[in-house]
Amino acid sequence: MNVLITGRLPDAVLADIASTCAVASNRADHPMPREAVLQQIEGQDGLLCMITDTVDAELLDRAPGLKIIANFGVGFNNIDVAAATRRGIPVTNTPGVLTDATADITFALILAVGRRVVAGDRYTRDSRFQFWAPFHFLGSEISGKTLGIIGMGRIGQAVAKRAAGFNMTILYSGRRRLPGETEHALNATYADMETLLAHSDYVSLHVPLNEQTHHLIDAAALDQMRPEAFLINTARGPVVDEAALCTALENRSIAGAGLDVYEHEPAVTPGLLSLDNVVLLPHVGSATIETRTKMARMAADNLLAGLAGQKPPNCLNWDTLYDK
Ligand code: DGY
């Protein structure tokens, strides 16, 4: 079987795939250019792709023999799953293994923006720390505040568990309400978006990107947030209207934001770069050695199962493909 792997994998995982497949792979640690992917996909049986690859009809038409698309990532908005399904191709992702790492980075952003950690670091490095003073570098308390979680799936729930350690009140909203016992265990109260936005000190986004969630946080939603509130986004950039966010931050109609993802990633709305009430990370939610190794292993297992004609462990469209 021939497979194309568009991003760098740990050597051991790559070796496992190469033991049974002829591998074309991008060994560099940067995205494979679209043109190269389009050229190299021809004649492939399997594709292990990165979240930076757009897997659309144009690409799929070049690989009529493709038997499996294994995404290296839990978010799969980069893949036209419907187009793959129409061509009978299973699509997989990597759920679960990056839950804790992403929840951790969410909390890192809450703490960083609330307590002005990055600004304080810059100030100290610039040798501007000359005295201690009672009103110096005042931030916003995290402990005891209200955290609004939009999207209470695996990652949202992992964030709620961490928030319990900070004695936070938890509101959540999302497509589905959790069972009573889960709400109770997480000490989380279901709220509509309007209530959540109006009452939260920290609003954290954990929804997938799709038509329903595109610009879920727009100018109107930002207007509903309190001037003391912070927005945290570790989900997908286009969930937030970044231009509207930039305006809200400039006007201080919200207190700040912590962002790991961007609407036009890797581009960042230029206005954000000069603001001191925003902390910006380069999409590193799952970037720990442990998590990325597990993601690679999971993507490889999905790939190999698909090539063998078996149901891949993390298939997104199996039921639709086989009408179960
Ligand atoms: C994912 O898996 O969707 C993440 O965004 C990668 O960090």
The CATH homologous superfamily of the largest domain corresponds to: NAD(P)-binding Rossmann-like Domain
The domain count comes to 2
Helix content: 25-40%
Bound molecules: (2R)-2,3-dihydroxypropanoic acid
Strand content: 5-15%
Number of strand segments: 12
Identify low-pLDDT runs.
none
CATH class descriptor name of the largest domain: Alpha Beta
Structural class: alpha/beta
Let me know the average pLDDT.
98
Distance between the termini: 28 Å
Give me the side-by-side strand order of the main sheet: 8-7-6-9-10-11-12
Q: From the 3D structure, determine the CATH topology of the largest domain.
A: Rossmann fold
CATH architecture group name of the largest domain: 3-Layer(aba) Sandwich
- Rg (C-alpha, Å): 21 Å
List the total number of helices: 14
Order of helices and strands: EHEHEHEHEHHEHEHEHEHEHEHEHH
3D architecture notes:
By secondary structure, this protein is α/β, with parallel strands linked by helices. The protein folds into 2 domains: 129 residues, Rossmann fold, CATH 3.40.50.720; 182 residues, Rossmann fold (3-Layer(aba) Sandwich). Helix content is 37%, strand content 15%. The protein is built from 14 helices and 12 strands. A 7-stranded parallel beta sheet has the order 8-7-6-9-10-11-12, with helices on both faces. A 5-stranded parallel beta sheet has the order 2-1-3-4-5. α1 packs parallel to α13. The chain is globular, with a radius of gyration of 21 Å. The mean pLDDT is 98. The protein binds (2R)-2,3-dihydroxypropanoic acid (DGY). (2R)-2,3-dihydroxypropanoic acid binds next to loops.
